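seq:
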Amino acid sequence: MDYLKIFFINTALLITLAYLGNLLYKHTITYAPERIKKISWFALAIFAGWISIVFGYRLG
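struct:
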């Protein structure tokens, strides 16, 4: 039962972050210069990795 709870929490976080990321991209990053786009994608990759580590499944 605990794994099911973790799964739904992670799924909800994924959907929420994807939606917010889409809004951010649509309204700000599309109008930004190329350098800012590259920096924002780099920061997004670091943030996504951190989120995966913090909220990921703990199987051990």
